[in-house]
Specification:
- By secondary structure, the protein is of the alpha/beta class.
- It has helices at 13-29, 56-68, 130-143, 186-201, 244-275, 280-301, and strands spanning 2-4, 46-50, 78-83, 97-102, 118-122, 168-181, 228-237, 312-323.
- It has six helices and eight strands.
- β5, α3 (130-143) and β6 (168-181) form a beta-alpha-beta unit.
- The radius of gyration is 23 Å and the shape is globular.
Length: 345
């Protein structure tokens, strides 16, 4: 299900700008950190970006790491960007970058199994239902480097490969149900309701699913039976954020996100009225909502947050986790404790 990008697909400049604005917004939210400070830079040789879009995150992370890592690490870093379409991939990728067309609702090819020191994921949950999101977590774990896997390349001084911990995962998401305005308005509440209805109409959960990572064997590094050990879980609000860049990018990003969604909602209501024999009162409600959506879009397209769209505040959550070291449940290190009363299960 994965192919190297051909670079011949037609680009959509509006979608490219939306994704780039998303990258700028996230960087500003997390105080300029493309990669969480807890993740050691010198251990990053193979890095994946899922939902890469234009590859902006990879390009900026590559420049940042080139100036913050050792000389033995920097030249050997390689980034692989995955996306369901190659339409936004750069025509000529920078050295050290590869772009791959891959549908994240399918497992990654075996060539990428246990390959990456860091996998970066952002805002992919909006288009996945709960089972798909749970599967994606498992497939991401599969492409993370195992604990104890030799690091690449061979160290030139000793001709030996160093051994490191399991690969890291950095995942960022936002949720429509965590959006609001200050002050809160009836239009804002109505917009959130429309967003939730749109998700449900497409078979998606009303909000981001709380995915449970599949159980594995006992993990003594975390004293859980999870496949990942969570290092950091933080949620930041755009409201009163100390960075002026958040305010500057928030309006653009929320507008770029909401406008196409509202346009689809309005078109769907008009199409339903035109194609179905509905009671007049039901049809009238749908048409009124379609007009309200169109009017809201018109206000959002004007410059300045005072015209609507820019006034939304959101919560953004970032998870940093590491692939766990898994030991069999019957391992001698447990000394018969596992399964006993008071033991882990």
């Amino acid at each position: 299900m994965a192919d190297k990008a051909s670079g011949t697909e037609e680009k959509n400049p509006e979608e490219a700008e939306r994704l780039d604005a998303q990258s700028r917004f996230l960087r500003a939210c997390f105080h300029g950190h493309l990669i969480h400070p807890s993740i050691p830079r010198d251990g990053l040789h193979a890095i994946a970006d899922i939902g890469t879009g234009t590859g902006m995150w990879m390009e900026e992370a590559q420049r940042e790491l080139a100036t913050t890592t050792t000389t033995t690490t920097g030249p050997h870093m390689h980034f692989t960007g995955f996306d369901i379409s190659g339409a936004l991939f750069p025509r000529q990728p920078r050295p050290g970058q590869t772009f791959v067309v891959h549908d994240a609702t399918h497992p990654f090819p075996d060539a990428y199994r246990e390959r990456f020191d860091l996998v970066h994921v952002r805002f992919v949950g909006g288009g996945l239902n709960a089972p798909q999101l749970a599967e994606l977590v498992e497939w991401v774990v599969e492409i993370l480097r195992e604990c104890g896997t030799p690091l690449i390349p061979v160290q030139p001084e000793t001709h030996l490969q160093t051994v490191g911990p399991g690969g890291y995962l950095q995942w960022q998401e936002a949720d429509a149900l965590d959006a609001w305005t200050v002050p809160e308005t009836a239009t804002a509440k109505q917009t959130i309701r429309w967003l939730v209805e749109e998700r449900v109409a497409h078979g998606l959960p009303p909000a981001r699913a709380q995915s449970k990572v599949a159980a594995a064997d006992v993990n003594p590094m975390a004293w859980t039976n999870a496949l990942l050990r969570i290092y950091h879980l933080e949620t930041l609000s755009t409201h009163n954020h100390p960075s002026p860049d958040v305010l500057a990018t928030k309006h653009h990003w929320t507008r770029a996100f909401l406008v196409p969604l509202l346009q689809r909602c309005a078109a769907a209501r008009c199409a339903k009225v035109a194609s179905a024999r509905l009671p007049w009162d039901v049809a009238e409600v749908l048409l009124v909502e379609a007009r309200e959506m169109d009017q809201l879009v018109e206000r959002m397209m004007r410059r300045g947050p005072e015209h609507g769209g820019g006034g939304f505040e959101i919560l953004v959550t970032r998870i940093v986790a590491r692939k766990a070291r898994i030991f069999p449940r019957d391992g001698p290190w447990l000394g018969g404790w596992h399964g006993a009363e008071g033991g882990p299960g």
